[in-house]
Design brief:
3-stranded mixed beta sheet
Length: about 350
């Protein structure tokens, strides 16, 4: 993700194409850091069971005032504008994929996913986001009671947390780890806005998804499948798409593909097309082939595995991407950009 506080994006219509090479890298290390430019990560020792029986704390909106405005009135105006500009074309959504960059970059794109939600039926919102700051080989739950936003505070569902913990496959975030991570927080204002007429009638379930294997994606998919089948539940999958440029250690480009930014779009849309098929193995193979730096690849994988499980039980679902954007149009290997995509899953 770009620096979301003092960015200087540019739009170029004509680009001189130069040869760009594919930089080999430790993909999981890069994916932990791409949205912040961090060079180090903390160990998973930050994930532990809370020392208290019932949480009594609030998660602060630590990215308000930098990645998005901390003014409730201004935030409400911005979200209203973006939602009004988006069309309701593929709803009601049971799950959405939406970006987690600073709102000046992806606020308008994210609205296309949130516009597909029917808030009147939603009683619980699961938010699955990747870990950018700590090493985590499983999934982790939030130990707080409320998540603050400049609009109003969102209640964390303690009963569902207990159910998930009882599977033995979930760890716990301490509050600092929780507040350092932006992938979940960036969705909280949008959830609050869309659900504002029902603010006292729903809860949230924040889940940090680590760098898990395909086998663990399948395990978590089976755990979440019954919740996804419930029409009163909504799943928010937090992910940006390609992080391209030397700062992200990813400069893959196929010669003859036109301007770099067009190649990036082609690369992203190959992955998006596979997500729309709802075939988890095909998406995994695409990631192995191209190493595309989709930072929410594991939350997406968990969703796709949950869908696969429900298809085996006879459910019919469809997914469609509705909006795509880039933070910058790359024309040279010295440029960088992050891609954003928003889509909706419906039950037929």
């Amino acid at each position: 993700m770009e620096d979301n506080r003092n960015p200087q994006p540019t739009k170029a219509s004509v680009c001189a194409i130069r040869k760009v090479t594919f930089t080999l890298f430790d993909r999981e290390s890069v994916l932990r850091n791409v949205c912040t430019g961090c060079d180090t990560t903390k160990s998973s020792s930050f994930f532990k069971k809370p020392s208290f029986k019932m949480p009594n704390s609030n998660r602060l909106a630590t990215h308000a005032g930098s990645w998005y405005t901390d003014s409730g009135a201004e935030l409400n105006r911005q979200l209203n504008g973006w939602l009004n500009d988006a069309d309701l074309t593929f709803g009601p959504a049971r799950a959405i994929i939406a970006p987690h960059a600073g709102y000046r970059y992806c606020g308008a794109c994210g609205a296309w996913a949130y516009r597909q939600i029917s808030p009147a039926v939603v009683k619980r919102v699961f938010i699955l986001g990747p870990s950018h700051h700590v090493r985590l080989s499983r999934c982790a739950l939030s130990a707080v009671q409320y998540c603050n936003t400049p609009l109003y505070n969102l209640k964390v569902d303690q009963q569902i947390n207990q159910q998930l913990e009882s599977t033995g496959h979930f760890k716990w975030m301490d509050q600092k780890t929780d507040e350092d991570e932006h992938s979940i927080e960036m969705h909280l204002p949008y959830v609050a806005k869309v659900m504002e007429d029902y603010k006292d009638q729903f809860t949230i379930v924040p889940v940090m998804v680590g760098s898990i294997t395909n086998e663990w994606e399948e395990t978590y998919g089976k755990i979440f499948a019954p919740y996804l089948a419930d029409p009163q539940n909504l799943f928010v999958i937090s992910s940006d798409f390609c992080h391209w440029g030397q700062r992200f250690r990813y400069t893959y480009y196929e010669e003859g593909s036109g301007p770099i930014y067009k190649w990036i779009e082609t690369l992203d849309k190959m992955g998006m097309d596979l997500i729309e098929t709802l075939k988890a193995d095909s998406f995994s193979e695409y990631l192995r082939k191209y190493n595309n730096t989709i930072c929410g690849r594991h939350p997406i994988g968990v969703l796709m595995q949950a869908v696969e499980e429900l298809k085996r039980r006879g459910h019919r679902m469809s997914f469609k991407f509705l909006k795509y954007d880039q933070s910058n149009q790359c024309c040279d290997k010295k440029d960088s950009s992050v891609s954003y995509a928003s889509g909706s899953l419906i039950f037929e």
